[in-house]
Sequence to fold (346 residues):
Amino acid sequence: MADVAISTSGLTRLFGTQVALSALTIEVPRGEVLALLGPNGAGKTTTVRLLNAVLAPDAGSMRVLGIDPVTDPDELRRHTGVLTEHAGLDDRLTATENLLAVARIRGMDVSTARKRIGELLERFGMSARADQRVAGASTGQRKRIALARSLLHDPEVLFLDEPTSGLDPAAIRDVVAMIDTLAAEQGRTVILCTHFLAEADELADRMAILHHGHLEAFGRPAELAAQLWNGIPATLEVGGLDPSVAADLVRSIRGVLDVTVDGASLALNIVDREVLARAVGELVRAGADVFAARPETHTLSDVYFEVERRRAANGTEVSGTSGMRPNSPAPPPPPAPRAPEPQARP
Fold:
């Protein structure tokens, strides 16, 4: 388990009689980025709050870096950082003062904290605003300060809940680049909770798709794509030969699963990339001009929408490497609702 950053088994959370998260079972290796995806109410934020000991589960278990958030929340928070959708900064304080307040709560030495704060604010382009009140900062600037705050104690696991919401395109680009650096260069495990599939596609090693608290799919996008689609898409741009004739020629090649004509292009579905080379050879021998031959890859967005389409159509799900299968049997009846619990401290 040393190489596993986060693991859950049957993790379940209720709000009254409503199931917010149902029997979630996943493992996230250290140093990877997991994208938690799904519509509003899917259970993404509930998952993050459970893993950060803000909420307690009604059933199941979880570990973060081998720590049980239920029994040892203080130890957990020494190793994790959290960026919420809303920055939650004190407008009356400067950027430096906001971060110093958190450093004191964490028991950091003041001189060490000041040095670390200076480095982080410089890194995120906020040095010029270090001693200015947060009240005048833009949404993007607030996000940068909040991200610096989440990294103040150099956490091993970083939870990011909608880190780019409310930002302009330039700020989104900057924040995505920061997240990529944190994961790729510094080996942090990142749990990215987002509605923006393009940024998830750029950053994520694995994806988990939730819907009404149920896990619809979990795994690497390429692995899930292999379960969803039989073959690899490819495109051939052809000239000097009637497209329908070219399509018939390509269709006869071993390993070609399907061919459709799209203007002067052929859209192929092939068993592997080598088939595309054979198709090009056959077309050239037939006197065709091949202007382009491109194997395509299914994106994280493709996988997400295909999983959602199949779920809506017939209630199937993808789970890890087990392939397409019917929905799992309903989990055991949930425990009786509890009395409201006290608000956990941030």
User: Anything to note?
Assistant: Residues 111 and 244 are 74 Å apart (CA to CA). Confidence is low (pLDDT under 50) at residues 321-346. The chain has eleven helices and 15 strands.
